[in-house]
Fold this sequence. Notes:
alpha+beta; 3-stranded antiparallel β-sheet; about 45% helix; globular
Amino acid sequence: MALKNYTSSVSAARSIAYIEAKLAQNGATQILKEYGKDQRVVGISFLIPVNGKDMFFKLPAKVAQCEKVLRAGLSSRARPETHKKIAAQAERTAWKILCDWVETQMAMVELTQVEIMEIFLPYVYNSVTKTTFFEQIKSTNYKALLSGVK
Length: 150
């Protein structure tokens, strides 16, 4: 399997802490962890002032989707204990990938290659609709992005 970090041993808690530190170093004034029904962190929300306005962002860690991919990649000869460990591995992998992505994006900000909004625009969170910008435009089949395109 060629999936990045699919064998990561870095705990989700450590990846989450690193993400929080990177966000704080780059202007986040508030950071919130969202927990699922199983008391595991499922996402991170944060506030960063952009051009004098507080912008709220929400980054998901899609552990269940990661688990599906890892399970699909298992050999038919995989041991039963390997199957039992997939859920924990998926959590580590999903958070480590998000951690690496945030680290890379923050490096680009620090090198003035991009602005915060260029990176996090899809993750701008609307607390009224409880959706991200990406989820909003996806729900309209990307209509707003395709105006004038034939």
